[in-house]
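To: structure desk
From: M.T.
Subject: fold request, one chain
Message: Could you run this one when you get a chance? Sequence is below, nothing fancy, just the single chain.
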Amino acid sequence: MLQTNHTPAFQTSKNPPILWHCLGTEETLKRLQTSSQNGLSQREAGKRTRQYGYNEIQAKKKKSIVSRFFEQFKDFMIIILIIAAFISFFVSYLEGKPDLVDPIIIFAIIILNAVMGVIQEAKAEKSLEALKKMSAPTAQVLRDKKEITIPSRELVPGDIVFLETGNYVPSDVRLLDSINLKVDESSLTGESHPVEKNALISLNPDTIVGDRLNLAFATGIVTYGRAKAVVTETGMNTEVGHIAQMIMDDDIPQTPLQKRLAQTGKILGIAALLICIVIFILGTIQGRPPFDMFMTSVSLAVAAIPEGLPAIVTIMLSLGVQRMAKKQAVIRRLPAVETLGSATVICSDKTGTLTQNKMTVTNITSYQKEESLNSSFGAALLSLAAQCNDAKLQIHKKNITAIGEPTETALALAAYKQSIDKTKLDLLQKRVCEIPFDSNRKMMTTVHQYQQELSYIGLPNNFTYISITKGAPDVLLRYCNKVYHNGTIINLTKKHISQILNQNQTLTRQALRVIAVGFKPITELNANADETILKKELEQELVFAGLIGMMDPPRPEVRNAVLTCKSAGIKPVMITGDHIQTACAIGKALDIITKDCEALSGEAIDKLSSHELCQKVNQYGVFARVSPEHKVRLVKAFQQNGNIVAMTGDGVNDAPALKSADIGCAMGITGTDVAKNAADMILEDDNFATIVSAVSEGRGIYENIKKAIHFLLSSNIGEIMTIFVAILFKLPTPLVAVQLLWVNLVTDSLPAVSLGVDPVGKDIMKRPPVPPDKGIFADGLWLNIIIQGLMIGSLALLAYVLGCQVLPESSLLLGRTMCFGVLSLSQLFHSFNVRSEHSIFKIGLLSNNRLVMSFIICTILQISVISIPSLARIFNVIPLLPMQWIIVMILSIMPIFIVELQKRASK
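Reply: Done. Structure tokens follow.
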């Protein structure tokens, strides 16, 4: 394969890029050393292919799956887990009872994490592959004076290409000739409607991509007209190529959960090693057998590391993913669930995300006032607009869709909703001639056979034809001398014109696209006349009918979602390629902003340094006319202010920002494959409101992870204290290695997993998000963990002392058995305490069915280990008498009452 030179066409890497939109057509052809009449020769095209490479998106050199897999083992916690697995097996082997269960579980966790990491890294490659698929497969090109079809990957700078309706734009091109050309660039720029292109204009150097009307860009789709153009950039030098480069260059940021767990893992790993050393040294100084101390200290170190934590977190996230999938939110990366719960800013694309991505008629006005769409005037105006229209209605059962240019489809559908079927009108009031829309004239005219009984305008049937014209209000009004009023035609006065212009201004201020409609009754028509004669005949002395305002309306459910985000302490932000006036109107309608000064344009962003943008970014809620680079800059500016940023979007232009954000949310229906593959979450229903459910779920999962950590660490501290205090006071070791491993493996894990499915609190979306720099153990959690760990350890030691020295049947074996029982069962009771900061009797002791089942299962297992003689011998315990069981159960249930008193005292 040929190597692509990433230097833009006809320049060196030391020179600034050529601003093709600033050059005229002749200067462009001269720079590219080509001819619009002859094109390139095949020989020259081959030479340029060798120089610039193929016109395709390139990817990074792929790492092998094996190397990717082993790179996942560099994490500190993973290293500690590997050591724990070997120690666990080593301890059981030295005890004469080799146990592979614990090591197998640990290694299963490690492998699962590694596989998830490999999948995560493959996302960028999938994004690039999707970009490749969006490229046009073939192109019409002029080579050696002949028009031929070639694979678009063989295009080179200087090729002359031809564009027609329905074509993909095969590369970035400078237009040479254009006739009524409209290009849909929404996937690249975010513009919600096709852009009218003009080959004859030159633009300022600082004109942003969305306003470069003399250029067309790769992945754009021609929706109307035709053009001749010259290729200026190919492959990675195109605008979409720049996006691909950003996808390759940006690393996926670590989630808050990953950062916090990594920090926790390091702390626990180091603490475990220190505990191992301290207890071993202390016991040896006291004259205890070194081998026994080694076994005890190593077992305790293994117990101190909650090696089940990564698995428990993975299980919690997986269950959360299943619940979210039922709510139309598909998670592609597990930690993304928790990250969304920590989000402080949601940056949302406008088109198709906050809005319906469908032009819709919202207002109509007569020359006097605003009218209702379902009034008789509304029917008359919409019937005229539906006939002067090239859109086609498709009706399948109860589903009605329209095919054509977005403005025209909106008019046809609005008419249909008022029981005006364009298809029937076209058949009965047949079109006899037309003057197509011209971007210079900004008008379109059609002529129809007039039938009074089928017309909604109510005029007498004393003429044969009706000519209908629609176009820009200021242009169409110049050709009107009459106005339609209550079914009659009256002369148009200066007062009428002033009223109409005021109506137009009112609609424009609401960021509506405004179309004016006029008509002219005709008695005789020469349909075969020259177009110039037809224009004079049909587009003079028009009757002004009214104005129609339309927009891409907000999704009805989004406003409540925005308000919910605000109440949850999340800043909603709109980032769009649309004009700032349109963006402000939508932003205000959705309560994202309240004033126009809270919006910033892409042009203004360009004038700010990264430092200035970082300082000012929080002042704004709407960013308009932005490029893909702007979106990434904005995401990073919010992140530099300490925010966890979620980014939603659906287009190619959103992909780099989706990847740069802490969590990217792509639209499932309208979203491109590029956006989906760059995202962490896909909203299957394209519903912004689904994010609210996802945030709530994410917050609930984070709370439950904290509960699991709280439970595991307080339990582990209880185990450490039991051993450490006994050794400190020169008592025989209260627990042997196999008992420590049993408590750590069995009675800890099931309740911790069950805590992961605890119901989400009702006030979860009324709290502020957890700051990204706030540790898991903030707000006194460390203190609670230590106090409750000391409580569990004290109860276990009390049972040990009672069994060893106080009870009539006292013995070391009885003390160890009672200590073993209390340590396990007290932890099971304690699992109910960590469910809430409030009293467990208020939230319902039995409201988590899985925790209740875990408690029952683990209790039966613990009682079985002590009561069944064959198992008792394995675990070095003896069956207990009824009175001894009563003491064990009383001590085990004490954490419930002690922690309830602690909760009450802390209020």
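Reply (cont.): The two ends are 71 Å apart (CA to CA). Let me know if you need anything else for the meeting.
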